[in-house]
Protein 1
Amino acid sequence: IYIILMIALLAAMIFIRRIIILKMRCRRFNSGTVSDRIKNIYHYSEQLLAILKLKNENRNYTEFSKKVEQHIGRDYFPIGDFDKFMDIALSSGFSRETPVAEDIKFCNDFVNTLAENIYKKSGLLRKIWLKIGNVII
């Protein structure tokens, strides 16, 4: 009985953790200033790209954008979408003009598409890890 109870408690803790993380991510994507929302979406995209072993180590965003488009464009998102996503993120962080609602929608749609395709192209164990262990997707 104790073993079954411990397994049920562990499963409940994992489930509750997942719900909390997903709600926090949703809140970060949908509240706050426009720049903060896009910054949070970009941070999530970095986590997703890290799963595919793509990291912006030298902080050259233009080169990184080309690298991502070249390596996973077409397979995980339409060609040109990451370039547009990066342009919106950079202008949001470094420009004086505020992104519009369509920009936030595009960024949100982009990371959702990327996340869905990473999940679809993953094996069973990785899918479990992405959903339960990492709570990336």
Protein 2
Amino acid sequence: VRGVVVGDYEGATPGLRGFYLQDAGDGDPATSDGIFVFNFQNLNLVSVGDRVTVTGTAGENQGQTQISATDTNVTLCGTGSVDPTPVTLPMASANDLEKYEGMLVTMPQTLSVTEHFQLGRFGQVVVSSGGRLQQPTNVVAPGPDAAALQAQNNLNRLIIDDASQG
């Protein structure tokens, strides 16, 4: 694949040991134009904005598509840029975020911190649109109404992670 580095998380553990690469796209808004390139050798090969060509083995790791590559499989080809893709919450379905996997995105709407329980340990916060999401049973009685509100909440949340794997 050939594309522009849109996120650089190379280096030793606990880093992600790789980088996100986005190509010009296939013109299909239902599919992602980005991919994670895993470099298990803990090298620092690229920087954000580098245009690179990568060869390697494609696969899935923890639900994320990735290419496993070594330093000999990454070739610098200059520099470039990618415009971020706007993404808004809530999503129409639970699988809608898949089409943005590995891509540079922007959230043009105001988001609220809904949860920060994992912040200290894992560097994660949950954000949502339209204000902080309420616990369903704080708003409606337990049962079908609470389950329906939870389903709505699930489509209106995004986990932001600092990539530290802390």
Protein 3
Amino acid sequence: YTVTPSSGANGSIAPNVVALVNSGGSQGYTATPDSGYAVNQWLLDGSLVQTGGAVYTLVNITANHTIEATFGQATLTPSVGSLTLAVNDTALDAALTGSARQITITNTGTLPAANVSVASSGFPAGTLFTSTCGGTLAPASSCMVTVTPGATATSGCPAGPAPTPGAVTVSSDDAPDSVIGVLVLGYGCVYQGGYVYS
């Protein structure tokens, strides 16, 4: 009997040639997703036989078959695209009580997001983040990133041009990176075309 393999976009299947198998025999396949993708489903003659997994073995073959591996990716969707905070510097002014803000990250894809991690770059001194994101994030599940401003504004803030925001980057093996811009503003910063003065 013949077993004809195929793969969807964003990955490959091996072996990828038609196999001739004796009646009652077996044939194994390995799916390899492209970077940033994962194995979604295995389809036998168009019907779902396995969800996920890099390997599938067809056993006790007594008819011609087709086998297909499909690929997908998780989608890490942040609750905001950018975040603007006030500095927390009550020594300079009692009104400068910048509060922590949270960003919710939700896996809106159909696959789990494996090895989720969070990193920051370009934060001003004293600004910190904490995260509940890590490990695997199942579809429709969420985690939180909390950004707490310090007493220092974003670099270049009072110099005249609009400051360049820092970033929170949420990554996974199976999803494109999500990047959230973070500005920390103090008196004299340029924001939305004007100077912050109160």
